[in-house]
Write a structure and sequence with these properties.
Elements lengths: L2 E4 L7 E5 L5 E5 L5 E5 L11 H18 L3 E7 L5 E8 L21 E4 L2 E4 L2 E8 L4 H5 L5 E4 L15 E4 L7 H9 L3 E3 L4 H4 L5 E5 L4 E4 L3 H6 L11 H10 L23 H16 L6 H6 L1 E4 L6 E8 L10 E2 L7 H11 L11 H13 L14 E7 L2 E8 L2 E8 L8 E8 L4 H17 L3 E5 L2 E7 L3 H17 L10 H19 L16
Parallel strand pairs: 9-10, 10-11, 11-12, 15-17, 16-18
Antiparallel strand pairs: 1-2, 3-4, 5-6, 7-14, 8-12, 9-13, 13-14, 15-16, 18-19, 19-20, 20-21, 21-23, 22-23
Helix pairs in contact: 9-12
């Protein structure tokens, strides 16, 4: 990016400026979206006039005076040359007292890999160099690695909580990734020019952002001298206020929807309120007898030959035509993502629960005894409640298989940039180690097919977005299959041979029966028995 250095004393004056050779620009399309275009010789011209740079400096000083501190300011200039301030927030101020220059007191003997660039965030960090070039690299970025990238893409920001340091070939120190690096206290060295060429991925390096250097191996003297990372928020009035408020928002006390205490008067947090409202709303929504007039038009039971009941709520254009009565057949479903999910659910018949050893059986008994609401045989509105909420391009599936609860939400259409899939899987009748092992098995399978997966406790959360329609539908078929065929596997998850067997079987099923697009609409084969 272009750089202007402007004095802070009145009258303001330009001390220095550096104009870069800009090769690309992003242009707004007439209707919506943006596109990237190559820049001709105009790329060598300044992005601003000197007068515009000085005007920006005047506004920045006024904002600093008003907020009594350095500010991170986002701005734009329209085609008529009018300046607009878009956002203003506190900027972390870099330490003015730099530590002694590298080599002044304790010479560094490690080989020097590169020198130069700009300090985007101070400090020293060491770790294995990991080159990030695409979203797929986010899945395998190791804890404590050095993030090495050509361009500081905003999408890499989630990695900074795990990164020891950040090094880029290009990019401005006022950009989004640089700001996040400062907020997280991650040492960052930008504009090195050729770091991705000089640094070999997989090697251990030390990044000295203050000294604008990168060394081979760990330089313990630099690491010891570097200040510990500190949180910007801890101890501030804002942090303490948010901590107090969080206690009234996050905790969940209403965990059993069949308990007599599951009622509005028992709500003590915002999480309780939203959980109670959701559960009661779903119960009311799918009570066909109590809502005959509403259900006659919108809610139908899916006509399939299985003991389980599958309900379908038409949000808009989810049915091909208005259907009288309580049931709807698959051939009248117009929802593209729902049909893909159903194809996955019915692709391979479920063989039933795996054989359980004595320890696995006792684990289930222990869970059922300690959590009576999990008892599958107990009468419960939720025991077999499985419902779709659909439109032509949208689907939300909420499914309960015994002890296991899963949700899938998807928007799939011709516009790739709007497409997304989200998946959540939780619950189980076994003890925590077995449930966690089952979650990791699901994670391994989904990551194999390019989902971004996160495990919290024994729950699995996965997402996929910005992919073509056919690709998204194939992944929805995988989620339909996973939702059915991973239930009750937690009972055998401490048996390595069983884990390996079921993992290989599921991958084989997915490759041979789930991923290939069906020749005819799904639904002819009955879904798995419970």
């Amino acid at each position: 990016p272009d750089l202007w250095v402007i004095s802070r004393t009145d009258p303001l004056s330009i001390i220095d400026k550096k104009i870069s050779d800009k090769r690309h620009k992003y242009v707004c399309l007439p209707e919506e979206g943006v596109c990237r275009e190559e820049i001709d010789e105009k790329g060598k011209k300044p992005a601003l006039t000197d007068e515009q740079a000085l005007e920006l400096a005047r506004i920045a000083l006024r904002l600093e005076e008003h907020f009594q501190g350095p500010q991170d300011i986002e701005w734009c200039i329209d085609q008529e040359g009018r300046l607009y301030i878009l956002q203003c927030r506190p900027l972390k101020q870099l330490a003015l007292e730099a530590r002694p220059k590298t080599g002044a007191a304790a010479p560094v003997e490690n080989p020097l890999i590169l020198r130069g660039g700009q300090m985007a965030s101070p400090g020293v960090g060491a770790g294995v160099a990991y080159l990030v070039t695409s979203n797929a690299d986010l899945l395998s970025f190791p804890e404590g690695a050095v993030l090495l990238t050509a361009v500081p893409h905003p999408g890499w920001a989630p990695l900074l909580s795990r990164a020891a340091a950040l090094v880029t070939d290009r990019g401005g120190i006022t950009g989004h990734l640089a700001n996040v690096a400062r907020e997280f206290g991650v040492p960052a060295l930008f504009n090195t020019g050729d770091a991705t060429r000089k640094i070999r991925p997989g090697t251990v390096i030390t990044v000295d952002a203050d000294g604008l250097t990168v060394y081979e191996g760990r330089v313990e003297s630099l690491l010891a001298a570097s200040a510990q990372r500190t949180s910007l928020m801890v101890g501030t009035p804002v942090y303490e206020t948010l901590k107090e408020v969080l206690a009234l928002i996050s905790p969940l006390n209403l965990t059993d929807p069949d308990s007599p205490d599951f009622r509005p008067s028992s709500c003590r947090t915002l999480h309780d309120i939203t959980r109670c409202a959701h559960e009661v709303a779903v119960r009311e929504l799918f009570d066909y007898e109590a809502n005959k007039e509403l259900a006659r038009h919108f809610i139908k039971r899916l006509a399939v030959e299985v003991p389980m009941q599958w309900w379908v709520l038409d949000l808009e254009n989810g049915f091909k035509e208005d259907v009288p009565g309580k049931e709807i057949h698959l051939d009248n479903i117009a929802s593209i993502p729902m049909l893909a999910l159903w194809q996955g659910i019915t692709a391979v018949k479920w063989e039933g629960p795996p054989p359980v050893d004595a320890r696995g059986f006792m684990s289930i008994l222990g869970q059922a005894a300690s959590q009576p609401h999990l008892e599958a045989a107990a009468p419960s509105f939720y025991a077999n409640l499985n419902y779709f909420m659909i439109s032509r391009h949208f689907c939300h599936l909420s499914s309960r298989f015994g002890f296991h609860f899963s949700t899938v939400e998807a928007l799939v259409g011709e516009d790739q940039h709007e497409n997304f899939v989200r998946f959540a899987f939780k619950g189980g009748g076994a003890d925590f180690p077995r449930r966690l092992a089952r979650s990791k098995l699901i994670q391994e399978i989904l990551e194999r097919y390019n989902f971004l997966v996160d495990i919290k406790g024994d729950s699995v959360f996965a997402r996929l977005e910005d992919e073509p329609m056919d690709y998204m539908l194939s992944r929805l078929r995988i989620l339909g299959y996973i939702s059915v065929h991973t239930r009750q596997l937690d009972m055998v998850m401490l048996n390595p041979a069983q884990v390996s067997h079921y993992k290989n079987k599921m991958i084989d099923d997915i490759e041979n029966y789930v991923l290939p697009a069906p020749a005819a609409p799904a639904g002819t084969a009955p879904p798995p028995q419970t």
